[in-house]
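[job 4471] stage=fold_predict status=RUNNING
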Amino acid sequence: MRWHKNRRLGILGLFSIITLFLVAACQGSDGDAGLQGLKGDPGASGAAGSAGDVGTEGQKGDAGSRGGTGSGGSEGPTGDSGEATSAAVVLVSDSVATSNPVFQVWGSGFTAGDSYTVQIWDGANPVNLTHTSSEAVTVNSEGAIGGSWSTSVSAGLYTVAVTDASGVVATAPLVVEEVVTVTLTAMNSSGQNGTATLTQRGDDTVKVSITLSAGAVQSELVHIHSGQCGATLAGVVHPLDNFVTDASGSQVSEITLTGLILSTLLTDGFAINAHQKGVPSIYTACGNMLTIITLAEQNSSGQTGVATLIGRGNDTEVRVQATAGISELNHIHLGQCGEATLGGVDKGLTNTNGGSVTTIVNATLGSLRDGNHAINLHQKGSPGVYTSCGNIPR
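[job 4471] inference complete, writing structure tokens
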């Protein structure tokens, strides 16, 4: 029995060995690759990847063609009238004297048909001027203006301004001069007579021009003295240039004094005095400094004249000479000439007699030369009618 079992196990082992040899003997070399199988279906889309870096900017493309013109917008409101840059003013003369302060104003570029006014601007204080010509104060159809105007302002540098009703403004500079003429009469048988003209051009300079006739002697030194010609003549105040002889044999002297206001020489007695060449103690000609005012016609009276004022210390000598037979009363008034600007009587003057009178007024000439006084004459028998008037300058 035991042998039978062992025999069975031996047979099974032998069979296993034979099987292994058979398997090894049956295995051959690798076979050829089989045909490729069919492509499978696409897989599902993967998830979106993260954004990459921004690339560099490409070149600018060519400009597109211009679009068509758009329709016009509605008209805006009209703006206020501004100053016309083309407007201009021309003065026939850029200077006038306080003794005859009339000048002509011409201009262009204003509003046709508008009225216009003329003013003098002195800083922030404009002064309306008086229209003295027959031309209408209206801009013509070509935008031009023209006419004569007068001013009562004292010597100085000003701006003339023309303004039309539409607000167009144009300006021009104007110098108002004060001119004083002094008559020089011969002294000590010199035979030399002459004239000195002193001109203030609105600042602190005074031009002095003197001419003496040839005479019997020759003059050299000349000065402005204090006092008056004769016994009251005192010391030198302003030396002037020595006389020289011109081609005609006359003696001439011309100088510009700086730092001087002419009105200061017309307030309390000054004179221009010339001296003989080589003998300065001998005076050859002399003339007192005077304030001379032109009296202009008022109310078509036909009257004109002059008034002369001479400083006499605390008093002032006033000489009035005007067309005779028209006026009677005459005064120094407050204010300036003109119906709207002339004030009440400040100082009475002697009634006119044949057109010429002299009065000593108890007031210094300096106090009367304040820019707020005028000499005014009244019609005989009708004192409410003014016949001529002149402003006393500063």
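[job 4471] summary: Residues 78-85 have pLDDT under 50 and may be disordered.
[job 4471] exit 0
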